[in-house]
């Protein structure tokens, strides 16, 4: 069995090779030129190029998806959440058009670090479990799963159309840091709240984590678009308020930066599965 994932999972090429995961890159378009996530451009280079330009992200190339499908006898393709990306719907169309009945396509209903965890889980289980069993365990993890995003430039989110109409109105808030959130079943980012300082918005999210009883049975991830100083401050605040939880940090890929904008910071949690 082969696990396939798009680069919205933030899995590096090196780790994908080590875990035997077929990584299919999302794409970003900038100044009329197309780049494949991780393969053609990294986050630092990308941010340097978009200072005076508006990037556009898109689904993986049809050829890359088809090559991944044809490289295995049985495969599970875990995609970026439907609604924030057309990757899932496109993969279904490709599989149908090419009669790739050996491929199961799973809408992760999440993104970034949470998708990363699900891909890692699937890769760990692939040698000894069926696709049906893997999907069941992924679905169990998704029952306790949520994401919050704090953009620095709210216009990135407004331009790319991934906000609900209500959330889009937050872009007019002067001198406030807005928070949007996503959880499985949602196809748009929704309004969560706003604060005047990083500490205020950190604490709003942390209070929600407390209310949800997030603990050591969950994995918490903080990702950022080359804003490590703020991400580290967020991590420290979470650990101070919630104790020594399982928390990791990761940098966003160019395609994910296109959604949240330079400097954005996100916190996500998902239920862990530590069983063999």
Helix content, binned percent: 25-40%
| CA-CA gap between termini | 17 Å
The Rg value, from CA coordinates, equals 18 Å
Q: How many E strands? A: 13
Determine and state the CATH class of the largest domain: Alpha Beta
Count of helical stretches: 11
Q: Indicate the CATH topology of the largest domain.
A: Rossmann fold
Q: Which structural class is indicated by helix and strand composition?
A: alpha/beta
Unreliable stretches: none
Order of helices and strands: EHEEEHEHEHEHHEHHEEHEHEHE
Could you say which overall geometry the principal axes of the C-alpha atoms support? globular
CATH architecture of the largest domain: 3-Layer(aba) Sandwich
The largest sheet is: 6 strands, mixed
Mean of residue pLDDT? 92
Query: Numbering strands along the chain, what is their spatial order in the largest sheet?
Result: 10-9-8-13-11-12
